[in-house]
Specification:
globular; alpha+beta; 8-stranded antiparallel sheet
């Protein structure tokens, strides 16, 4: 066991970490290790190939799906949301574009506004979670939120914007969004264990989400949509994210000129200590690109440095579980 793995073990033990850690450099897997339980009631351990919900890590896959449709001529960055929404969601301005939705500069009202002071473990969904199974089902949750500012004025992270992107992608392609992501991103990337699962019928080799590390902690089944959409909720593995980064930067999902466009900084996010492109967080001073997410019973971060071909991914089935390990890896590897 090398020094890096021993240090990860120590942090995982201290934090009661439940999840998977994986570190890759080139073709070499430096660390791939699972901790804790996928199902506490049945005493089922997490394994390195366990599938976990990744919350807002999904947004990168949504952005790639939209970029693929743009490559096929079905959309443009300048396409307005209104041209595909029709009479739905009338509070979204007629001039809001696909590009502004992708880079969180649309200014539209957010059904889960992260600028507000909320406890992520509260019951935050504005409608019963079992009613949110298909992307069109989200219309009732997205409605009634007035704009926060004029389109293009500034950056403001927006969950609603990525559900709107899912609606747009579904309507322009004629393919259900959950299938579209698999066809246009997961299949070309070789992400065989990545899909939108229903939380009330999770198959084997899939972790339940828990609100804390205490053995008596509740699951998150009543906290999140029964099936996610463009802003979050896909299930994946640490290995699949290594596959995603490799395929993305090899131009196997969208061409390399589109990759460069997506990882070009569009906004500074000083409160996050990062920058933002189109669907991807960007390191504030290096070329590293990242996806991350946090929800009730979910925490996830995957970072890829295209120069060194280094990837580190931490996925946890608790709300805050990933952060102690991912902070350590950032200190060790993001230099």
């Amino acid at each position: 066991m090398d020094k890096l793995e021993r240090e990860i073990d120590a942090i995982a033990a201290e934090a009661a970490f439940s999840g998977v850690v994986r570190v890759d450099r080139g073709d070499r897997v430096l660390v791939a290790k699972a901790y804790g339980l996928a199902h506490r009631g049945c005493d089922i351990p997490n394994e390195v190939d366990t599938r976990f919900a990744i919350a807002s890590g999904t947004k990168g896959l949504t952005a790639l799906t939209v970029a693929s449709l743009i490559e096929d001529g079905l959309l443009e960055l300048s396409t307005t949301a209104r041209s595909l929404l029709g009479k739905d969601l009338p509070l979204i301005g007629d001039d809001v574009t696909v590009e502004q939705l992708l880079d969180h500069r649309s200014g539209i009202g957010d059904y889960l506004d992260e600028d507000s002071d909320v406890d992520i473990d509260d019951y935050l969904m504005p409608v019963p979670v079992h009613e949110l199974a298909a992307t069109e089902d989200y219309l009732v949750a997205l409605a009634g939120h007035p704009p926060k500012f004029a389109p293009g004025e500034r950056f403001s992270y927006c969950n609603s914007g990525y559900v709107v992107l899912a609606l747009i992608a579904e309507r322009v392609s004629g393919v259900p969004f959950h299938e579209l992501v698999v066809q246009r991103v997961c299949d070309p990337a070789g992400m065989r264990d990545t899909e939108f699962l229903r939380s009330d019928e999770l198959p084997g080799r899939t972790a339940l989400g828990y609100l804390g590390t205490d053995p008596a902690s509740k699951t998150n089944v009543f906290h999140l949509p029964v099936r996610g959409s463009g802003d979050g909720g896909i299930y994946s593995t640490a290995a699949d994210f290594r596959s995603l980064w490799t395929a993305f930067f090899a131009g196997r999902i969208v061409p390399l000129n589109r990759v460069s466009q997506m990882v070009r900084p569009r906004s500074d996010a000083p409160s996050q200590g990062k920058r933002y492109g189109l669907g991807f967080w960007l390191h504030d001073s290096t070329d590293a690109v990242m996806l991350e997410g946090m929800d009730a019973g979910v925490s996830f971060r995957s970072v890829h440095d295209p120069r060194s071909d280094m990837t580190h991914t931490v996925i946890s089935n608790t709300t805050d579980g990933a952060w102690p390990v991912t902070r350590f890896l950032a200190e060790q590897l993001e230099t």
